[in-house]
Write a structure and sequence with these properties.
Blueprint: H1 2-6, E1 8-10, H2 11-16, H3 27-39, H4 42-60, H5 67-83, E2 88-91, E3 96-99, H6 101-118
Antiparallel strand pairs: 1-3, 2-3
C-alpha cells in the first residue's frame, strides 16, 4: 500500500519512516511524511539527516559503537527481503524499493480506468 502511494521508497525514506510502521493504519501518515521529506530542499534534507543521526547517537550510543551504521544495515536487509516478495522489486544499486513492473502496469491501468469512469 505504501508503494502505491509513494511510488518508490529509497533507503533514507525507508530507514527514517517506513521501517517504523507497526500497523497498516500508519501507511497514510508515513506516505505523507515521505511526501513532505521529498518536498524539502537538498540542504533541508541534509540538515534533517544530520539531526536524525545526532538523535541516534545521543539515544543509542551506549548500546552500540556504530548505531547509524547498524541501523542502515538492518534497513538494507529488510528492504532486500521485501524485494523478494511477489510484486515488489529492490534496486540494490540505488537502494530503492518499488512495485515490480507488472504491479506498476496494473496500478497505471487501474488509475486510467478510474479517470475514464470519472469522466476525466
Amino acid at each position: 500500500m505504501l508503494l502505491k502511494e509513494a511510488g518508490k521508497v529509497d533507503l533514507t525514506e525507508f530507514s527514517f519512516f517506513a521501517n517504523h510502521a507497526y500497523s497498516i493504519g500508519e501507511v497514510n501518515n508515513i506516505a505523507a511524511l515521505i511526501k513532505m521529506h521529498r518536498g524539502l530542499s537538498s540542504g533541508e534534507r541534509d540538515s534533517f539527516k544530520r539531526k536524525m543521526d545526532e538523535y541516534f547517537k545521543v539515544k543509542l550510543e551506549h548500546t552500540a559503537k556504530n548505531v547509524r551504521g547498524n541501523y542502515d544495515k538492518s534497513a538494507k536487509r529488510t528492504m532486500s527481503a521485501l524485494g523478494w516478495c511477489e510484486g515488489l522489486h529492490c534496486d540494490f544499486e540505488n537502494w530503492e524499493l518499488s512495485l515490480s513492473d507488472e504491479q506498476r502496469k496494473n496500478r497505471v491501468r487501474a488509475n486510467n480506468q478510474r479517470r475514464i469512469f470519472a469522466g476525466k
